[in-house]
Amino acid sequence: MSFFNKILASVGVGSAKVDAKLSKSSIMIGEKVEGVIDVQGGNVEQAVDEIYLTVNTNYEKEQDDRVINKHVVIATIKLNEPFVIMPGETKTFPFQIEMPLDTPVSVGSSQVWIQTGVDIKGAVDPQDRDIVTILPNNMMDQILNVMKELGFSLRKVKNEEASFKLRKRLPFVQEFEFIPTSGSYYGKFDEVEVMFFLIDDQKIEVVVEVDRRARGLAGLFSEALDLDESIIKFTIEENELHQVKNIFKEILENHS
Fold first, then answer.
1. Do 47 and 75 belong together in one domain?
2. Which of 55, 110, 142, 197 is 20 to 30 A removed from 171 (C-alpha atoms)?
3. Of the ranges 63-72, 75-84, 133-142, which is most confident?
4. Same domain, 7 and 114
5. Residue 8 pLDDT grade (very low, low, confident, very high; cuts 50, 70, 90)
């Protein structure tokens, strides 16, 4: 029976199981979250090489005139030295994980999850997946509120593949797409896209892409050539956030 159980465990039947438990499921970018991982033994003794955690997300990529969804690992953490789990035994491992500063916010089509895996030689590795909600930090939140104050509504948020000129460590950028729905900028822009690149917990780089609304034949010609788009970058520290509204006003006035 023991030999038969080993054969079954090698294909995942009666093998060890893993379950990650986070202290909370809503996490701010840059925040540390604690948790525990329970490894429960199966029907046979098994040697565990390591336990690992990965932070994951999805993004869109255009390929052959169609959009495909891609997966990317944002961070990886290895937790332990090799150990043996006995049949029916449960071992618990505490952990702490910090959400990287370039983790996308959980809004729109963006999804972030923590994958927990146990590496067992000669067996199907058990895994556990936990969806987490990633919240913007204070600087991002204040900038998003400024757009609302200026009469813009958030239309769409997505993670999209980007060129090396625009992106940083990850192969994509998260775009917050706004449209003017009231105020002095209504009718002047097709859309305004905002992207955030946190430098640290006190400083942020903001990229603004302005898409002007076409006016007349010349405007339509410019729009067809993508000449109506302008990209502006600026860096601001947390103690300068009171200036953000005026910065956006100047950008919008210069490109309206």
1. yes
2. 142
3. 133-142
4. yes
5. very low
